[in-house]
Model the fold of this input.
Amino acid sequence: MISKSMKPRVENSSAIRAMFEEGVRMSRLYGAENVYDFSLGNPNVPAPKEINEAIIDIVRNEDPLKVHGYMVNAGFDETREAIAESLNKRFDTGYCKDNVVMTPGAGLAMNTVLRSILDIDDEVIVFAPYFVDYANYVSNYHARLIEISPNPEEGFMPKLDELREKINKKTKAVIINSPNNPTGAIYSEKVIRDLAAVLEEKQKELDTVIYIIADEPYRELVYGDDVVPFVPKYYDNTIVCYSFSKSLSLAGERIGYVLIPPESDNAEEFTSAVIIATRISGAINAPSLIQLAIIRCLDAKVDIDFYAKNCRELYDGLTEAGFECVRPQGAFYLWMKSPDPDEKAFVQALKEEHILVTPGSAFAGPGYVRFSYCVSNATVQGALPGLRRLGKKYFG
Amino acid sequence: MISKSMKPRVENSSAIRAMFEEGVRMSRLYGAENVYDFSLGNPNVPAPKEINEAIIDIVRNEDPLKVHGYMVNAGFDETREAIAESLNKRFDTGYCKDNVVMTPGAGLAMNTVLRSILDIDDEVIVFAPYFVDYANYVSNYHARLIEISPNPEEGFMPKLDELREKINKKTKAVIINSPNNPTGAIYSEKVIRDLAAVLEEKQKELDTVIYIIADEPYRELVYGDDVVPFVPKYYDNTIVCYSFSKSLSLAGERIGYVLIPPESDNAEEFTSAVIIATRISGAINAPSLIQLAIIRCLDAKVDIDFYAKNCRELYDGLTEAGFECVRPQGAFYLWMKSPDPDEKAFVQALKEEHILVTPGSAFAGPGYVRFSYCVSNATVQGALPGLRRLGKKYFG
Done:
């Protein structure tokens, strides 16, 4: 009854559910305050107050037929206009509303882009470790996700030689995600320039178009002085998939957009395709009320100092205990080398200390584990003694 | 750059946009009040006041991390529980939350079901005329939509002999839509029983599972004494795709659900697949705030008398002018035989009277036109003189 293409995904999800249920079971057994769950990526800083103020004002004062009704599939003109202007101000670009298509979050944004470019057996390249649902997004259209192996020697930056080898006529896009889930790394301007050079070279050599799909749900979550380069400035065929899930803590509301820069090849036809893909995905359009609300909140920010404090304390605690971590630059993830080459055994050892993390193999990055530090500070503090005990055990 | 699969859809959409732009152009030229646009399906009765009251109360008084945050991909437990209870009360069923998966509207609901069951070249059957995006939904997964020809002799009820002939080993589902877009017809209990009998027979003969996908965005829009049978009562392998778009005038908010009855084959695995499909579509979950709001509005109703009045006046006006119409029983569409066998020429003649309708060929129903009467009553009244003039022209 289930399609052949869906079957393995259903089986795999039972494993994820088992992990989730184990967390629930442990919370019942030991008390929620004694279980330190770093396995989920759900923002835990509330949305800025401007959001709720905007929602109440709109619902009270605007025409309900507009607020709750269909608009053009690309989204409200005023929302797209406001986003284009905000980008222009921040990045000195020249966008207008016609370059922006509103979508229910970055996940659906990526699906609309993939639906627009992929035929059966086409290829999309991604750098390991990566968010595992990229593989599922590509599978939705019976195309193939091609992995570039992890690059631990250089802070998990893209391996460009391997990329060059793996690009062929079937390569339609390269997905990048900076700040990165799961590594917390940011791709520097140099990295983006070098990546762009490879892709320009290959586009010319193969006479094809290869898009960069820049998945940017973590753009605003940056902790130090690092700058997240605006990728369309470095490579014309960049399509940005953005989400307000983390920047405004609206993950459940499903609101984001696709930016198709006018400099990209055949931008007008591509934009039409993305709008149609949004419609025929069945999503039809991004949710209407929240589209109107974010217009007033584009300059609002969640309290990222909260994440920064967790990040600092967790990173310091782990490195002092002897663990080898990638220093997080953005997003809310910490990527740590497992002291046991079988990171699943280490995940089990952490569990005995009531600490829950995600094994790296869930991100095509075996030998590592991921901590999500979008948790209460008490969770970080509560986990430190157990982490120190494990440090002693592994490093003496 | 655009996929081969997307290309024809982009070309086709230019035609739709041209029609839309023609409406805008005419409004500018003659004044909006002198153009009678029956071409769109956007609800024009406001959402019941309970919705906005619920939104304001939730935003004011509940935890923003819950209101705007991720929940399990299937949706909030309390929303699914409330929907299951509401169905149990109305249809004397025994559902629980685990039988319901919240989705961003019925369109995405259908896509999650199709993603769960379709492999490349599988087949889905539909009765013409039908909502054209069914073809696109099926194309998303490289499967084939198989049409059963229209049945004007019997009020556009399903042609069951043709259905029987066209079912084969590759047939995974039959889509039905009652009340129907575009015909406004409701499938009676007898029709559903006869359809179920054919499918039971074929399931046995071919030793396969054939689902009915009941697309039910118009369930609550019924004008006379007609009853919309609850399809799972008649056929175990029925999957219901429901939307609150029309019943609560929330079309822009994208809120609906998939109901997988426990009586259906392998219901538990199928439910897992639909939940995963919701996640990997990129939609992740139905929008969170509106999921919480509808809990309080399941018994609320939009003012369907408004549609009923438009329906009556339009139907009476058209039949008095000599046109042959299917009497609308539900939804907000009126399906009328074109007096010119080339209905596109007739659409043109209507346009000269400043009346905009959709040609039947857009629904695989050539020779007919569709009026959407979710318009102001002034639009109906304003169109009647022109319709009478055309009646005289065609019928003397």
